[in-house]
Design a protein that fits this description.
Low-confidence stretches: 193-202
Shape: globular
Number of domains: 1
């Protein structure tokens, strides 16, 4: 499949699942985010190859307590992750603009001494929690995620559902300038029917002049 077409359809699919916001939809959204962000060659990179946009992700970070104060045992970033949302000025929640690699490594959850990045959360939901595969936790850190996600509900969502929704929103906001460029590129390519004409009688394929690379 054409990676540009796949990119556009994946974005539309992700939007629909985030808007529905049901647990099943958000778990399945992790599979789309894995494809966009974590595949060997992430789909975002494939789509951006010819345009080379400098994509920057606007995010907030986990709170760091001042010296002398203990870190909370559990904290996670829900909607606060999205630097594009106006939440007023909250001390410690400064917005920063980061690169693709920094976004994947950006920490969005802490459970005691374990810190989880965006890549960790997408990978867990996609490969353990049922986004793509349903498996048993593969490490103590995974087990901690299961325990916390099964015991906390915030605004009718569990922590992982809240986090993956925010990750999806930040991703869609960041790649919004890329989508019309990809759409225009696809529209500029003649449809396959104009390139290859099937002769019904003979069953042969006529390739119009210039329709095949020399």
């Amino acid at each position: 499949m054409d990676p540009l077409y796949l990119f556009l359809e994946t974005c539309l699919d992700l939007e629909a699942r985030l808007n529905e916001a049901k647990p099943y939809s958000l778990i399945r959204a992790s599979a789309l985010l894995r494809q966009l962000l974590l595949d060997g060659t992430p789909l975002i990179h494939r789509a951006n190859r010819q345009f080379r946009l400098k994509l920057k992700f606007s995010v907030r970070s986990l709170l760091t307590m001042p010296d002398g104060l203990p870190q909370p045992a559990i904290q996670f970033l829900g909607d606060a992750l999205d630097g594009g949302l106006d939440m007023g000025r909250v001390p410690g929640f400064e917005i920063k603009s980061i690169s693709f690699d920094q976004f994947i490594a950006h920490h969005v959850m802490q459970i005691n001494e374990n810190r989880y990045s965006i890549g960790d959360v997408i990978g867990f939901l996609a490969n353990v929690w049922g986004g793509v595969h349903l498996n048993e936790p593969r490490s103590p850190a995974d087990t901690h995620l299961v325990t916390v996600d099964s015991s906390i509900v915030f605004a009718s969502r569990t922590p992982l559902m809240t986090i993956i929704h925010a990750i999806g929103q930040v991703t869609l906001r960041t790649i919004q300038p890329l989508r019309p460029l990809v759409q225009q590129s696809l529209e500029a390519v003649p449809p396959a029917s104009a390139m290859y004409q099937l002769e019904e009688v003979t069953g042969s394929i006529n390739i119009p002049e210039g329709g095949e690379n020399e």
